[in-house]
């Protein structure tokens, strides 16, 4: 089945196995809801038809996601039910407030441009029966429902430079469209989310504590992090100096968060809007470099396969700058290539911190999973460092072509 979420067949399949001899934090376990439970939750929303089946979605390290098929008179329609991780998102009402504003803005923009297939180009939030964007269940958990986008596919790893162009174009359009969102500043759904200095300090604290005696397993990675510490302040300083502006950014521009049309391969819809908030455009671009340029998955064990491929970088930069190049400031353009090493370093630091702290944050599926994820990130940082000058030239030549 071609769809935006690759799903497991069994609702229980997402449960993690605890690590032997280690206290295993409860947040890392996934509950796994039954169809009957989902049915009762879905009754709270303005849904079309009766539930026929539901599958848990394995993608995503944070929220719990189910794809449910409903039918009315034999005609199927699909919805996505999602339980928001309230350990991570402390104020789910603010997350949904941002999401409503952002999706309404994009929808209005698409309609103004007389675009077709609007429900495939922006997420449709299904309200509860009393018109709210989320439902709070008796356990105090927050649920929301989206219309499933049909005939699209998401990929964990990029397969061609053309796909990289589409990823860049999809997130670039998103970015450009949100420059027109007026009104109050969006909520910061996770304060200091990409604040690389704070992420580095959190890593140092976890290392000093070494609560689970894991630092000895991560010596090389710890050395790498410390050696590359100067990277973490560069954009923060540029921002402080007024060299780069705050924008409304997506902040989780993983390649699997842009849905590509199954037939044309074109970017259709940007998903996972929980972290859309004030940020730096370069965080978004850097996170695309992180997830779109290596042929491997984020948890690849064979590090010799992890590398930044220039043709993918070029595709990404063409797609993204093609949309945003005229909106971005010279200060931002200066750090486009640099952001390609900042983001794998920042996310790698977060994986390492979580590994050292006992895997409380990212859902893990095997012992050492977060350390494996950290290793791929750091390998990618190294690969970007080795190719940064060439990446810079690619950016310059794309910018010249835009003039
Ligand atoms: C998390 O759950 P997912 O895959 O959408 C994380 C991102 C990381 C990413 C790493 C809220 O995103 O910041 O980059 O894992 N989201 C949050 O794969 O922390
Ligand atoms: Mg996400």
Q: Indicate the mean pLDDT.
A: 92
Could you give the count of β-strands?
11
The biggest sheet amounts to: 6 strands, antiparallel
Percent range of helical residues: 40-55%
Shape: globular
Write structural notes for this entry.
The chain is an alpha+beta fold. The protein is built from 11 helices and 11 strands. The chain has helices spanning 35-42, 92-112, 161-178, 196-209, 219-227, 234-240, 281-292, 310-324, 330-334, 336-357, 369-402, and strands spanning 50-57, 64-72, 75-83, 125-126, 135-136, 142-147, 152-153, 247-249, 258-261, 267-270, 277-279. The longest helix has 34 residues, at 369-402. Mean pLDDT is 92; it is low at 1-30. The site of magnesium ion has 2 residues, from loops.
Write a brief structural summary.
With 403 residues, the protein is α+β, with helices and mostly antiparallel strands. It is 41% helix and 13% strand. Bound molecules: 2-acetamido-2-deoxy-1-O-phosphono-alpha-D-glucopyranose and magnesium ion (MG).
Topology record:
Layout (H helix, E strand, L loop, with lengths): L34 H8 L7 E8 L6 E9 L2 E9 L8 H21 L12 E2 L8 E2 L5 E6 L4 E2 L7 H18 L17 H14 L9 H9 L6 H7 L6 E3 L8 E4 L5 E4 L6 E3 L1 H12 L17 H15 L5 H5 L1 H22 L11 H34 L1
Antiparallel strand pairs: 1-2, 2-3, 3-6, 4-6, 5-6, 7-9, 8-11, 9-10
Helix pairs in contact: 3-7, 3-8, 4-10, 7-8, 7-10, 8-11, 10-11
The protein binds 2-acetamido-2-deoxy-1-O-phosphono-alpha-D-glucopyranose (GN1) and magnesium ion.
2-acetamido-2-deoxy-1-O-phosphono-alpha-D-glucopyranose binds next to loops.
From the structure above, extract its key features.
single chain, 403 residues, alpha+beta, 3-stranded antiparallel beta sheet, globular, binds 2-acetamido-2-deoxy-1-O-phosphono-alpha-D-glucopyranose, binds magnesium ion
